[in-house]
Amino acid sequence: MTFLPNPTEPRDLPGHVHVAMPAEIDFYNAEQLFPLIMSEARARGDRLEVLVLDLSATCFMDSQGIRLLNDVRHRLRPGARMRLVARPDGVASRVLELTGLRRDVPVYDNLAEAMAS
Fold first, then answer.
1. 89: burial class by Cβ within 10 Å (0-12, 13-18, 19+)?
2. Are 58 and 90 contacting, i.e. CB atoms less than 8 angstroms apart?
3. Phi/psi at 66 (nearest 5 deg)?
4. 35 to each of 18, 72, 81, 99, 111, how far by Cα in Å?
5. C-alpha torsion 78→45→54→109, nearest 10
6. Phi-psi group of 87: left, alpha or beta (phi > 0 → left; psi -120 to 50 → alpha; rest → beta)
7. CA atoms within 13 A of residue 34's CA, in its CB half-sphere
């Protein structure tokens, strides 16, 4: 079963947006996640410096999850950066490594490091 993220508000630090991702990112929810993420990013307008997508709780992610992350990365406003948080021993971290996305997007072990970047 696939769930959308908890509707809690992302943390809003100056220039930074944190979005917690769901436990599963796959064919069933990736298409619905994209507008939610982009809405949070666009709400900050020109003030957005860093978008942090937190995959700490993500225990399943297929190719649609990677596609989602790439689509978000390529549609951020110029100058905005994307950072990912993934547990080093987690599935999301392994998928990011296997697909090569880890080379293109910085991945942090914890939220504090990602938010400080």
1. exposed
2. yes
3. -65, -40
4. 15, 9, 18, 23, 22
5. 50
6. beta
7. 18
Cα separation of 79 and 65, whole Å? 23
According to DSSP, the residues that pair with 60 across neighbouring strands are 24
Matching residue, tokens 């110029």: 78
Is the per-residue pLDDT at 2 higher than 50? no
What is the bridge-based pairing of β-strands 81-85 and 24-25? unpaired
Find where tokens 């978000």 sit: 72
- Does residue 48 contact residue 15 with C-beta atoms inside 8 Å? yes
Q: Write b or e for each residue in 44-74: b if 16 or more Cβ atoms lie within 10 A of its Cβ, otherwise e.
A: beeebebbbbbbbbbeebeebbbbbbeebbe
50-73 pLDDT per residue, tens: 999 999 999 999 999 999 999 999
Contact 40, 17 (CB under 8 A): yes
